[in-house]
Write a structure and sequence with these properties.
By secondary structure, the chain is of the alpha/beta class. Helix content is 49%, strand content 8%. The protein has helices spanning 19-30, 77-82, 91-100, 111-116, 126-134, 154-165, 167-181, 184-196, 216-236, 240-243, 246-255, 260-263, 271-285, 300-317, 321-324, 327-334, 341-355, and strands at 13-16, 35-42, 50-58, 63-66, 85-87, 108-110.
């Protein structure tokens, strides 16, 4: 099958900067069968991403760039409620829509998830996906440009429009491949999981490098610090690192100082941390009676072998093991916790026989190449 080249003419692009301008095009968008969507945002200085631009296209027609600085995005609510949405890597987009529009899309096709189900890596960048599947280059030079400035440059507007221009042919190709493999339902399950998955505040400590090496008291303290940092970052609208870095949290949990002077023993401890939050941190470090959170009770070699078994599933199904067996799922396996039925079905009986020690991993014959 030849690649589906992006052969359609580049559609016209319109910049909508007022409520009236958006209201004028909403009827046409509401009549669309699909809505192709993307956003531009900044994350460097806040907990919540700061929305800078919304890109919309309905049924492969004109592209609309919507300025959130001048438009009431609540006007998009009927559109988001009623029309199925296609996007790429949409976890952040969905969070932004839920916050600024008041609702998240209910019917979503994510090209990043779909690509990971048909043999691509996870997570695959849009530029790579377009190059490999559509055989056309994408200019991503504006990725880190300042999207808050007005007026937007011609280069920025072209970049923003391209992100939705390429979605229709990508969607058509990926839907066809999912249908050929009879895994549309798997892609749907994984999309729901990826896009609706919120971080559990009680589990955030596990993302801190070195956390698994702490003793019981250290894990208890790190979990408490991670929960506090999350709520504080949300309250102050700061990045997590703007409240307390991972390295400082780990150091505090490991040393468990009892005084401000003890906190200051780390020469990298910013004065603003102990001046503003020192008392609260010291209290968290010495909470009485709480049980330490469990660690993955298996050696690292066990985790590596589980992922190796997952790679065999990937070779057979084409579904990326990084999407199918993320760290939190491996953690649940290590604690003998139940998985969803669809994930059990997808991993297959051979995978679980291997986990129970009843079988061995074998290289599939079609990939075996080294002989003694």
């Amino acid at each position: 099958m030849s690649p589906p080249y992006l052969s359609e003419p580049r559609p016209s692009t319109r910049f909508l900067r007022t409520d009236a301008a958006l209201q004028a095009v909403l009827p046409g968008l509401l009549a669309s069968e699909k809505l192709y969507l993307d956003t531009e945002f900044h994350t460097e200085r806040s907990y919540h991403p700061k929305l800078m631009l919304v890109q919309l296209r309905g049924d492969e027609g004109e592209i609309f760039l919507i300025d959130p600085f001048g438009v009431d995005l609540g006007l998009l609510r009927p559109l988001i409620e009623q029309v199925p949405v296609v996007l790429h890597g949409g976890q952040m987009d969905v969070q932004i829509l839920r916050r600024v529009v008041g609702i998240a899309p209910q019917r979503i096709f994510d090209t990043q998830v779909a690509a990971a189900c048909v043999g691509m890596s996870w997570p695959c960048r849009l530029q790579e996906l377009v190059t490999r599947l559509l055989a056309v280059p994408m200019d991503k030079a504006e990725t880190l440009s300042d999207w808050s400035r007005r007026p937007l440059s011609e280069e920025q507007m072209r970049y923003a429009a391209d992100d939705v221009w390429v979605l229709p042919p990508l969607e058509r190709l990926l839907r066809r491949q999912l249908q050929e493999r009879s895994i549309e339902d798997v892609a749907s399950f994984l999309t729901d999981e990826v896009l609706s998955g919120a971080d559990d505040p009680g589990e955030l400590w596990r993302t801190v490098l070195g956390s698994a090496n702490l003793d019981d008291a250290g894990r208890r303290a790190l979990q408490a610090l991670a929960r506090w940092r999350e709520s504080t970052a949300q309250l102050r609208d700061l990045p997590r690192s703007g409240v307390l870095s991972d390295a400082l949290m780990l150091d505090l949990a490991r040393r468990s100082p009892r005084t401000i002077e003890g906190m200051q023993a780390n020469r990298r401890m910013p004065s603003q941390v102990w001046k503003r939050d020192g008392a609260a941190i010291l209290e968290l470090l010495h909470l009485p009676g709480s049980a330490p959170p469990p660690v993955i009770s298996r050696p690292r070699a066990w985790v590596d072998m589980v992922r190796a078994a997952g790679r065999i599933v990937e070779l057979k199904t084409g579904i990326s093991v990084d999407l199918l067996l993320p760290e939190r799922v491996v953690g649940r396996l290590s604690r003998n916790e139940a998985l969803q039925d669809w994930r059990i079905r997808l991993l297959g009986p051979d995978f679980f026989r291997f986990l129970s020690g009843e079988s061995e991993i074998q290289m599939p014959a079609e990939w075996a190449s080294v002989k003694n």
